Description:
By secondary structure, this protein is mainly alpha-helical. It is built from two helices and no strands. It is elongated, with a radius of gyration of 25 Å.
Amino acid sequence: MEPAARRSGGLWEGLYRVIMRRTPIYVTFVVVGAFLGERAVDRGIRSLWEHNNVGKRYEDIPVLGQRQSEE
């Protein structure tokens, strides 16, 4: 039976072989990861802000932003 450190080493070696061995693939992985991470953080912060400001936003006030219809 193999020790746990040796089994987890296979995972890291596989990750190295697939992603980090070639520079273009590694750079693509980092850029895509940064983009997706930024989107996730933006969505989380936006939903937190909207949850904390319900009823205080411009869209929530019914009389603002409405023009009288010109006939």
